[in-house]
Amino acid sequence: MDPGGNGQSGAVLTCYKHPKTETRLRCNKCARPVCAKCIVRTPVGYRCRECVNVQQKAFYAGFRPIHYLIALVVAFPLAVVAGWLIPRLGWYAIFLGPLVGVGIAEAARWATRRKRGQYTWLVVCGSIVVGALPNLLTSLLLLFALGGRMPGGPGYLPAGTIRLIWGLVYVLMATTSAYARLRGVTRP
User: Fold this and answer.
1) Is 4 exposed, middle or buried (0-12, 13-18, 19+ CB in 10 A)?
2) Alpha helical stretches, state H, 23-182
3) Does 150 lie in the same domain as 71?
4) What is the pLDDT, as a whole number, of residue 58?
């Protein structure tokens, strides 16, 4: 066996999961030969799926299902207030959306004592989307109630259109920012 772990020893290496597949790759943690289908790219190098799974279990240690409820209880009221306020500020939603998304994510992390759950991002992003729904639905209702007509003549947008656009911008910016903040190491 090659002590350097680079597969250059002359012996033909085969993937530990696919014995018929030749490879020159090795897991940088356990040094098992791994084919391109089985290897996982991580920030510290290429690893086999078993080593990645062991790391994930350690990453999420101490997280309990009650933490999802705590994250929801903290994130949802903040998301409702932000979902009502930010779209009404117009183009500021472009800048405030990411700040609010990260703020809600950090508030949920603080409430769970910085413990990470595999689906905490989903709870927080779902809260942001559901929190913005009343504003989005009101904008749609206003848009359809006027039938696409707005007093003032041609060239004007219907009343609910602008609020709907900024509401969607807010939701997109806030959820992607919260997702980026909370998404941890996951299976590929």
Assistant:
1) exposed
2) 49-59, 65-85, 93-111, 120-145, 159-182
3) yes
4) 66
Question: pTM here?
Answer: 0.67
CB 60 within 8 A of CB 50: no
Is residue 53 helix, strand or coil?
Answer: helix
Residues 47 and 73 occupy one common structural domain: no
Regarding whether 170 and 133 lie in a shared domain, the answer is yes
Q: Provide the token pair at 38.
A: 């089985």
Task: Tell me how far apart the alpha carbons of residues 131 and 111 are, in angstroms, rounded to a whole number.
Answer: 19
Q: Helix (H, G, I), strand (E, B), or coil: what is residue 75?
A: helix
First CA to last CA distance, the chain: 29
65-111 pLDDT per residue, tens: 898 999 999 999 999 999 999 988 888 999 999 999 999 999 999 99
Structure confidence at residue 138 (pLDDT): 85
Range of the domain at 117: 65-182
Q: How many domains does the chain have?
A: 2
pLDDT of residue 10: 60
Residue 188 reports pLDDT greater than 60: no
Question: Hey, what are 90's tokens?
Answer: 């117009």
